[in-house]
Amino acid sequence: MRIAITLGDPNGIGPEVVLKCLDDPLIMKRIEPVVIGAKKVLQVHAKALGRRPPALVENMTASLPKRGIRLVDTSKGQEVSVEMGKLIPRAGSMAMNAVDEGIRLAKQRKVSALVTGPISKLAIVRAGYNFPGHTEYLAKKTKVKDQVMMMVSRELRISLATGHISLKQVPERLTINGLVAKLKRVRLSLIRDFGISQPKIAVLGLNPHAGENGVLGSEEEEVIIKAIKDAGNRGIIALGPFPADGFFGSGQYCGYDCVLAMYHDQGLAPFKILSFGSGVNFTAGLPIVRTSPDHGTAFDIAGKNQANEGSMVQAVLQAASIAEQRRSNQ
Q1: pLDDT, tens digit, for every residue of 3-49?
Q2: Segment 267-303, tens digit of pLDDT
Q3: Dihedral Cα 181, 167, 150, 111, nearest 10 deg
Q4: Parallel, antiparallel, or unpaired for β 200-204 and 258-261?
Q5: How many domains does the chain have?
Q6: Apex 117 CA angle, 277 and 283, nearest 5
């Protein structure tokens, strides 16, 4: 099974964790990686790590030598510079060029899944990409409107009702129809991508104590509870709304196949506390399989051989698992 892996921002830790990931014998036994990015970026990062770069084969059909890696070089003869630790728009553009190539290969079924290395949201915006991150960009490129960010680890799965928006925008973005659509998408993904026949989804409240019956906010009574009831009428097993603090503090999440959080940090803060370094970001609802590690570019440690590849390893393995599950459904 071929899995495409983009390097992410060339000035961050993406190339380092990719190189370390490809040293993992489990990865090389399970999949055939197709690395997407500039050849020079891999070479520079390999040198910074004090290791020889892998034998790179820039051909999708040629046989691979021992320890050889297939590479799609996106530099296309252009000059490539690597300035580790620096936020540069050109680096953001390079990262997104690799994503574009990965999407193309996945849509053409030349690879079974796409794993994206970490990007700098500010770098890509300054490079002219009007998207707050991978998730929204992938949805646009694959013409999907109801994608859901799902964080996955051995311990739990958390999906988000809203994504990369400011906190003050969250209440107005929460609607009954919108939440029902998210619950439908989460349920379908749990069945299709994880093989769970009757998934059970926990829904968090928005306000402290899940609104305390309207005392601390009206969104639970006016939107979230009605959405849960509507979803139930459609055969979706969704329970809540639960106060987020007690729900995670008491370990209630262990009794559910997925948790739907109302906003980004409500879901990702507990997820990263419980799973940082082994968690995976999966975009549910896309026609292609896409995962990524649960960390960012970490410019402060780029090129210092300090980055942990654990999350990248899990992102690759999770992508392979989901691709296999989808294939078995056909």
Answers
A1: 999 999 999 999 999 999 999 999 999 999 999 999 999 999 999 99
A2: 999 999 999 888 999 999 999 999 999 999 999 999 9
A3: 100
A4: parallel
A5: 2
A6: 80
b/e map 250-269, b = 16+ CB within 10 Å: eeebeebbbbbbbbbebbbe
Which residue, 317, 246, 233, is CA-closest to 279?
317
Last residue of a domain, which of 277, 301, 318? 277
Based on the fold, state whether residues 227 and 300 are members of the same structural domain. no
- The tokens for 147 are 């994608």
Phi/psi zone of residue 24: left (φ > 0), alpha (ψ -120 to 50 degrees), beta?
A: beta
Token pair belonging to 102: 């990965």
Task: State whether 136 and 162 are in the same domain.
Answer: no
Whole domain around residue 167: which residue ranges? 148-277
Contact present, 107 and 99 (Cβ < 8 Å) = no
Instruction: Tell me if the pTM is above 0.85.
Output: yes
Alpha-carbon distance of 118 to 167, in angstroms, equals 23
Question: b/e map of 112-151 (b: 16 or more CB within 10 Å)?
Answer: bbbbbbbbbbebbebbebebebbbbbbbebbebeebbbbb
Q: Tell me if 280 sits within 8 A of 315, measured CB to CB.
A: yes
Number of Cβ atoms within 10 Å of the Cβ of 75: 16
Nearest Cα to 96, choosing from 55, 64, 140?
Answer: 140
